[in-house]
Amino acid sequence: MTNINFSFTVIIMLFVFHSNSAFSKDSHAPERTEYFAPYAGKTVEVDGSADESIWQLAKWQNLDQRWLGPEYSKEDVQGRYKVVWSKSKLYILAEIVDDILIDTHRDPLTQYWDDDTLEIFIDEDFSGGDHQYNHNAFAYHMSLDNQAIDIGTNKLAQSYSHHVESRWKQQGNKLVWELSIDIYTDAYKDQATDNQTVELYAGKIMGFMVAYCDNDGSELRENFIGSESALGGAPDRGWIDAGMFGKLILSK
Ligand SMILES: [Ca+2]
Ligand SMILES: [Ca+2]
Ligand SMILES: [Ca+2]
Ligand SMILES: [Ca+2]
């Protein structure tokens, strides 16, 4: 390599490095899903039946990333979800196949992730970053009895069931799980009684992903599968790191 070529290469490398460092301000892992959620002009009844026509306009997104546990069969566990929105809520439809339903820990605040659990991760402003003991993002752990649990700023599990309406029905070999969720900013305070929900609008970008913990009779959950890839580091770290969430775009 001549000196001129070498200098040129260094300049190109510096340019690429500079571009990358500008890009790295985005605290999200690479290759996040982009999901475009259609606007639900009419009321969605949260009843575990996807009768509303708006559901047909939304695309399925698979839970096809194995975060924890061994290989599994289609009969053991599979899942997919859709999202639509209104000005006041996100609506989620999840279809879950699970051969054995388990809710061993009847106390909703105990080892709730080791029961069959649908997890909905929401980062209102797509900021990414740490959300373990704050409300930069929420990770609602939905139990089979429709309670929503996450860790509060006191570092203890709390019920956030008042943010979520949740109903599921078994249809064939599937659970059809329908939910509506109120959206809060990172200013949410656990003890306050006047937390304000966010009004949603077309074009808003949020952090979002869905996962399912499958247990069929073990002491600990057997599989944890999610909608986003998790390369490098702990594959289940989305419960701490909102940079693992996908990009949810509210469309018209
Ligand atoms: Ca419905
Ligand atoms: Ca199973
Ligand atoms: Ca946030
Ligand atoms: Ca199960």
Describe this structure in words.
The structure is a single chain. With 252 residues, the protein is mainly beta. It has one domain (29-250): Sandwich (Immunoglobulin-like). It has helices spanning 3-23, 54-57; strands at 34-37, 61-62, 65-68, 77-85, 89-98, 117-123, 138-142, 148-151, 157-159, 164-171, 174-182, 205-214, 223-226, 246-250. The N and C termini lie far apart (54 Å). Bound molecules: calcium ion (4 copies). One calcium ion binds at residues 76-77, 98-100, 214, 216. One calcium ion binds next to loops.
Task: Compute the CA-based radius of gyration.
Answer: 20 Å
Structural class: mainly beta
Largest sheet: 9 strands, mixed
Cα shape: globular
* SSE string, helices as H and strands as E: HEHEEEEEEEEEEEEE
Q: How many beta-strand segments?
A: 14
Topology:
Elements: H1 3-23, E1 34-37, H2 54-57, E2 61-62, E3 65-68, E4 77-85, E5 89-98, E6 117-123, E7 138-142, E8 148-151, E9 157-159, E10 164-171, E11 174-182, E12 205-214, E13 223-226, E14 246-250
Parallel strand pairs: 1-14
Antiparallel strand pairs: 2-4, 3-13, 4-5, 5-11, 6-7, 6-12, 7-8, 8-9, 10-11, 12-13, 12-14
Bound molecules: calcium ion (4 copies).
Keywords:
Immunoglobulin-like, 33% strand, binds calcium ion, 2 helices, five-stranded antiparallel sheet
Structure summary:
The protein is mainly beta and 252 residues long.
